[in-house]
Design a protein that fits this description.
This protein is α+β, with helices and mostly antiparallel strands. Helix content is 42%, strand content 28%.
Length: 101
């Protein structure tokens, strides 16, 4: 009976110590997953905002073409002589001739 009472007399762990592993895991997830993804989204949005007529691009579907017209969310691409397609601005994956980093 004395052994049981001796164990109860120990100091209780603090609430901060109980949550410390969760705080550390959140910090790791933030710096390894969330923050890089936010930075990548900012770079992609900057790329889409900087599109202009004459840029040669590759779409997410792999179509190569030159931008001939820009509207708010729609671009027109010339993919061959007298062949133009319209697609969403978000469909652009790469701008040729620019650094893609």
């Amino acid at each position: 009976m004395d052994v049981l009472l001796a164990q109860e007399a120990g100091a209780a762990p603090s609430k901060l110590a109980a949550f410390l592993p969760f705080i550390v895991m959140f910090a790791v997830f933030y710096f390894l997953l969330i923050r890089p993804q936010q930075q990548q989204q900012k770079r992609r949005q900057a790329l889409l905002d900087s599109l202009k007529k004459g840029d040669r691009v590759i779409t997410v579907g792999g179509i190569h073409g030159e931008i001939t017209d820009l509207k708010d969310d729609v671009i027109t691409l010339r993919v061959a002589d007298k062949v133009e397609i319209r697609l969403a601005r978000a469909g652009v994956s790469i701008v040729k001739g620019r650094d893609s980093n």
